[in-house]
Write a sequence for this structure.
């Protein structure tokens, strides 16, 4: 299997995540300091700097608005930064786990990691798939397309650092539609390329229960056998597969992605 990975984007987004998280912490610190402003201004007495309009506004209640604004802005930036760090800096990034899970497929198969119009795309004789990964551990239930996990103190304490469950089935369907539209435009506007959505959980400790849903939801250890099972239905012709591969290979190169080969089975 060949893997196209946009390493420059991964590094760039990882750095952005660190910077946003640090900026958020600094702003939260500024907000905390603002709460001490009235006492500091009062101690300064009649010093000239305390008579400026901004300082007087701060002393007369403006510090509260500053604190609230800093709290909101710092929290938002911190959450965005954490989101980027989870996706681009974690040692077990979902794309790395999925790449390892697919080791053994031959070079008719491709995995595009931030190297196509969507984040993670798989193309091979088993078909074209838009993959959405989730790195969540513990008991996980998929109900009405939404991830549900039981409440725990550990979950509460790790709220700011853990990935949210959200609605991965809807995300996968949206990604599949996006890639399908792009491929259809590139090949021929009248030809609809069938891109299937797929949700993969990448934590070793994920205990999955799927109550309902119209998108396959798998643990990463099931991924290879699932894709092999799809070969029975001959989901894609050789000619269409080659067109899709040529288009996505070209797009990956245009985005600056590099190609590497995983180890195939003997």
């Amino acid at each position: 299997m060949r893997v196209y990975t946009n390493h420059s984007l991964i590094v760039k987004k990882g750095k952005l995540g660190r910077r946003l998280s640090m900026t958020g912490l600094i702003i939260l610190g500024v907000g905390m300091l603002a709460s001490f402003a009235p006492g500091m201004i009062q101690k300064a007495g009649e010093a000239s700097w305390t008579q400026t309009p901004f300082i007087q506004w701060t002393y007369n209640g403006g510090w509260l608005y500053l604190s609230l604004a800093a709290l909101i802005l710092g929290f938002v930036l911190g959450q965005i930064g954490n989101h980027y760090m989870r996706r681009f800096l974690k040692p077990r990034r979902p794309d790395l786990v999925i790449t390892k899970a697919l080791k053994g497929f031959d070079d008719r198969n491709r995995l595009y990691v931030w190297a196509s119009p969507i984040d993670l795309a798989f193309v091979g004789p088993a078909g074209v798939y838009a993959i959405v990964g989730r790195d969540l551990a513990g008991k996980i239930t998929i109900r009405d397309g939404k991830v549900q996990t039981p409440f725990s103190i550990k979950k509460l304490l790790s709220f700011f650092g853990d990935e949210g469950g959200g609605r991965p089935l809807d995300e996968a369907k949206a990604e599949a539609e996006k890639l399908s539209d792009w491929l259809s435009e590139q090949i021929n506007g009248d030809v609809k390329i069938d891109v299937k959505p797929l949700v993969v959980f990448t934590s070793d400790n994920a205990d999955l229960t799927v109550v309902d849903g119209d998108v396959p939801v798998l643990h990463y250890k099931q991924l290879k056998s699932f894709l092999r099972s799809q070969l029975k239905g001959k989901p894609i012709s050789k000619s269409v597969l080659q067109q899709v591969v040529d288009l996505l290979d070209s797009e990956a190169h245009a985005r600056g992605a590099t190609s590497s080969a995983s180890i195939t089975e003997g």
Remarks:
- The CA atoms of residues 135 and 202 lie 5 Å apart.
